[in-house]
Amino acid sequence: MNQVIHLTGLTQAELAAFVEEMDEPAYRGRQIFASLHHRRLRSFDEMTDLPKEFRGKLNDRATASTLKVESRYLSEDGTRRYLMKTHDNLPVETVFIPEERRDTICFSSQSGCPLQCSFCLTAKLGLLRTLTAGEIVEQITIALNDAYGTGQKTPRGTNLVAMGAGEPFLAFESLMKALRIMADPRGLHIVPNRVTVSTAGIVPRIRELATVTDRPHLAISLAAPTDELRDVLMPINKKWPLNELLAACKEFERSLKPGERFTFEYVLLDGVNDGDEHARQLANLLNRHNLRAKVNLIPHNPADPLPYRPSPPERVESFKHILESKGVHAFVRRPRGRDIYAACGQLAARGTANPTPPTRHQLA
Ligand code: SF4
Fold it and tell me: How far is the CA of 249 from the centre of ligand 1 (A)?
């Protein structure tokens, strides 16, 4: 792949400059952009509106796709997980979650992850590599093509969440560029307002995101109401402890639009962080910082060799009730795709017994 440029990771302006360097008019760049992102084509040979000779030159210098779908897993609840490989043979996972009103695609920002959250299977891989903007965009294209077919409009619109493998704020440049490319009305046209980025708490990037005019929504994974416990569950807390994290959130709050709230994610681990006292501590912490936030409670998704069990339903309810009684908006997130290792914290390039074959759209 050396010297070969992945055109999916270029903006329209960059594509225009790229074709001009090849002595072609700038509008050819716009044509390629529309083919890659609006029609979601994954090879130059399918772009039959381009002259054949030009397609040949493109094939020599560039590529339209670098990810290959290795396996596709279909959950009994309709969730699909894709295990893909990069050109340098690293795993990338993406999850498509069909929902009543709108579908959601959960994408990865890194192959593996350098953070060591103790409840997350991805952590076991360590960091393999940060993904490029093109690799991020291509995950969305592949999932949409599988669901709706190449070039077909998505009937219900799509929400994106950066909650797959990796810490998105450690892939900040790739992520922000991918979001700009995907927001382009001549392409996928998925605007940042339909994107949520979930971080383990990289404080400088929270501050930086607050300064971005057209920015995605923010979610922060908390997992514990005290530094003592969070240090164990999410070691990134030793670098940016709760008070610093929540102070950055308070600053971020100034950038919220009317009616917008950001989200705290709280994974519930049986007997570890799900007691009534933890709920009271969490409510007090958020109230002390006077944050306009909601809390998503996520029952842990068990996976060997993680040492945790999910909290029983009555514990989840009690936790939620205590938060609400103290004025904190709380919701319980229904786990999706647990049976195919597609749920939160389960992405670790795993196979299961019965992958369904990739469709022809993915094999380009
Ligand atoms: S929870 Fe997220 S940040 Fe933590 S190890 Fe897993 S992928 Fe990385």
Answer: 19
Q: What is the mean pLDDT of residues 41-63?
A: 96
Are the CB atoms for 189 and 138 separated by under 8 Å? no
Q: Over the stretch 214-232, which tens digit does the pLDDT of each residue have?
A: 999 999 999 999 999 999 9
Cα 107 to middle of ligand 1, angstroms: 13
> Would you call 359 exposed, middle or buried from its count of C-beta atoms within 10 A (0-12, 13-18, 19+)?
middle
- For the chain, what's the residue count? 364
**For ligand 1, what atom is nearest to the CA of residue 167?**
3
The arithmetic mean of pLDDT across residues 196-221, rounded, is: 95
Q: Does domain 5-63 have CATH number 1.10.150.530?
A: yes
Q: Where in the chain is the domain with CATH 1.10.150.530?
A: 5-63
Alpha-carbon gap, residue 162 to 197, rounded angstroms? 5
Q: Quote the pLDDT of residue 288.
A: 94
Residues with a catalytic annotation lie at 93, 344
Q: Identity (one letter) of the amino acid at 37?
A: H
Q: Name the one residue in this structure whose structure tokens are 């050109």.
A: 87
Which tokens hold the place of 123? Answer: 């952590």
The architecture in CATH of the region 68-363 reads Alpha-Beta Barrel (3.20)
* Residue range(s) of every CATH 3.20.20.70 domain in the chain: 68-363
Closest atom of ligand 1 to CA, residue 116 = 5
